[in-house]
Amino acid sequence: QVQLVESGGGVVQPGRSLRLSCAASGFTFRNYGMHWVRQGPGKGLEWVSLIWYDGSNKDYAESVKGRFTISRDNSKNTLYLQMDSLRVEDTAIYYCARGESRKLGAWGQGTLVTVSS
Amino acid sequence: DIVMTQTPLSLSVTPGQPATISCKSSQSLLHSDGKTSLCWYLQKPGQPPHLLIYEVSNRFSGVPDRFSGSGSGTDFTLSISRVEAEDVGVYYCVQSTQPPWTFGQGTKVEIK
Lengths: 117, 112
Fold this sequence. Notes:
- The structure holds two protein chains of two kinds.
- Chain A is about 0% helix and about 55% strand.
- Chain A is built from no helices and eleven strands.
- In chain A, the strands form two sheets. In chain A, strands 2, 4, 5, 6, 9, 10 and 11 form a seven-stranded mixed beta sheet that branches.
- In chain A, a hairpin with a 6-residue loop joins strand 5 and strand 6 (about 60).
- Chain A is globular.
- The model of chain A has no long low-confidence stretch (mean pLDDT about 95).
- By secondary structure, chain B is mainly β.
- Chain B is built from no helices and eleven strands.
- In chain B, the strands form two sheets. In chain B, strands 2, 4, 5, 6, 9, 10 and 11 form a seven-stranded mixed beta sheet that branches.
- In chain B, strand 4 (about 40-45) and strand 5 form a beta hairpin.
- Chains A and B meet through strand 5 and strand 10 of A and strand 4, strand 5, strand 9 and strand 10 of B.
């Protein structure tokens, strides 16, 4: 079955960096675009970033543009999110999700990122 | 960015009764490919979201037929014909017609 497992979350000080990973299994990873979506504490969902199936195209929310970088390694079936210059407002659960024809058909359980001094 | 506005923000429903959630977008969601990229997701307590409806009215795999979606242009509706206890959670509409993808604020559904 389709499985997406995020890792790499934790507590980090403002201005520091963190890299999230999302390990995919149960489907042909290289055939799908992938997304990151986050949810601040007690808040709604916010789309963060997407990457095409082959990594040739990427897009970001304005709130993270220039600070976050999405990437993937299709040989390892893994999606990444490099988060630099972290801010308190980046505190959230980060979900990876499989994109298919402009919908998110599968989601991971999420990893919690806390940015605090 | 396209702004998605959901109403109501909370809903308390008696089991077996219908429920309706509205979602309005600030621009038409009709894509140049002729499809309207409006989805509905449900996030049950303590769980990640999961897809219910895509392209306005198509139920995703495994979604019960008591869930239905309708609408066009800028006005969309999610309907639950007979609410069950397992339907509690927060419902989100999302547009993916134009980047960046944007979510509604969410509608919290509780059981009376």
